[in-house]
Amino acid sequence: MNLLDVLLVIISSAGLLHGLAFAVYLCFFKKKKTISNYLLALILVFMAFRIGKSVMLNFGNDLEPIFIFAGLAFLLLIGPLLRWHVAGMTQVDFKLPPRFYLEIVPFALFFTSSFFIDKNWFEANNKEAVIVFASVLIFIYLHFAFYIFIAYRQLKRVRNDHVKALRTKSQKAIILWLQLLIIGFVVIWVSYFLNIIENAVPYVVGPLMYSAVVYFLSLKAYQLKITDMDGKVFKMNDDIELFAQISKIISTDKFYLEPNVSLSSLSKLINKSTQKTSEVINQYSKKNFNDFINYYRVGEAKKMLSSGNKYTISTIAYDSGFSSLSSFNSAFKKFEGKTPSLYRKENSL
User: Fold this and answer.
1) CA 280 – CA 277 distance, rounded (Å)
2) What are the chain's domains?
3) What are phi and psi of 206, to 5 degrees?
4) How far is CA 62 from the centre of its chain?
5) Global pTM?
6) Which of 24, 69, 80, 234 could pair covalently with 103 via S-S, beta carbons 3.0-4.6 A apart?
């Protein structure tokens, strides 16, 4: 084995060990125990077996058929685990129903049959062996691709059900995580599939891609604090309806035009505490109360400024709800990046 081969083994093995270490952390050291974390740990463990087989096959000699077929069999398990992980991260109080266990039947059958593969038959390279092996290989990779697609469809439904503008920070983090996870699996799948299509890429690319993907996903999991979350963050509550009510009062009913509007007056109007009102506005508008009100006021002012010079700047300021010209100028420049006078000059009809 030359120096390059040694380096490839080290890099591939490093990713494998990192994935196993991450799985051990999720199962035994992570304080918050969730089914989604356990599923992610299982994915990492079985991917490690799969990648380990690839490393041994690429650099080892006379690898027993049982290792080759058992390694392939794990792909039949990783696909369902990915789907279940997506479900666990997006469904409230997710539990594995009994029917889900039917999805591991292909893995169980193929893994069991790998113990009965005769090495002499496998190495004979006869027509029957080639056809069987090729058929199995295609089925396994199509099966894996199918589950990646199913996981993507699950995520797409979640994205459609939760409007982007109203997603919480935790919901955004989970959606981003699952997008990256699915992309990572697509990269790994493509690298392996291209290899079986007339060796379009070297076989070792698979383990190398896995190492790169697992390091990247581990970093993103840490940054997004994804192991502290699960499907509970998608639990529907009254906050969205409350924000819709607040938005109607502010925008449709033009409550922002009132010069004395305050967090206290708005809270009394909706019969909520100032703390709750402020919390909902911050969560769903991504603005504090003052900026939330001023955003609508500036929008009103822009309409008046675009209509020509029939209103003075001070008149527009007061008519759009501001209590002073200075606060109007400051808010307008904050949202538009220019003064009201310059905006009028650039946008007058």
Assistant:
1) 5
2) 3-234 (1.20.1070), 239-347 (1.10.10.60)
3) -55, -60
4) 41
5) 0.68
6) 80
